[in-house]
């Protein structure tokens, strides 16, 4: 009787399955990410901070240039994306960001720096019409 109960419970346990479909991570639209993004606001551990004022990111196909580095100097990194995660890389893994929201003009992302949780709001910088006209006129020469 004891063995029959154990056998029945084992069969029930193994026959149960997770009926929920496995969801894949949504992929970032890297085309929207390309361009220069400037920090508009930031929080450190959920409190507004001014320490990152002037921070920018310039994304292209597989590289990002930023001044959010230990010395504050502009540096270019390779980056990889997986779902909503972006990982900046140099000789090592430098920094990881979670993208919370990305539109044509706004980017919200978060990261951790030296044990502090940062949330960053960035605005995409559009080329002004003057620089576009100058570039067009130089290309048409």
Dominant shape: globular
Structural class: alpha+beta
| Strand order across the largest sheet | 1-3-4-5-6-7-8-9
On the 0 to 100 scale, the average pLDDT is 81
Class of the domain at 30-127, according to the CATH hierarchy? Mainly Beta
Q: Which stretches are low in confidence, meaning pLDDT under 50 for 5 or more residues running?
A: none
Q: What distinguishing features does this structure have?
A:
single chain, 141 residues, alpha+beta, Lipocalin, 8-stranded antiparallel β-barrel, 3 helices
Protein architecture, described:
The protein has 141 residues and is an alpha+beta fold. It has a domain at 30-127: Lipocalin (Beta Barrel), CATH 2.40.128. Helix content is 21%, strand content 43%. It is built from 3 helices and 9 strands; from the N terminus they run ααβββββββββα. The chain has helices at residues 2-15, 30-33, 129-139; strands at residues 35-44, 47-48, 56-59, 63-66, 75-82, 85-89, 93-102, 106-113, 116-125. It has an 8-stranded antiparallel β-barrel. β8 (106-113) and β9 form a beta hairpin. It is globular, with a radius of gyration of 23 Å. The mean pLDDT is 81.
Which SSEs are present, and which pair or pack?
Layout: H1 2-15, H2 30-33, E1 35-44, E2 47-48, E3 56-59, E4 63-66, E5 75-82, E6 85-89, E7 93-102, E8 106-113, E9 116-125, H3 129-139
Antiparallel strand pairs: 1-2, 1-3, 1-9, 3-4, 4-5, 5-6, 6-7, 7-8, 8-9
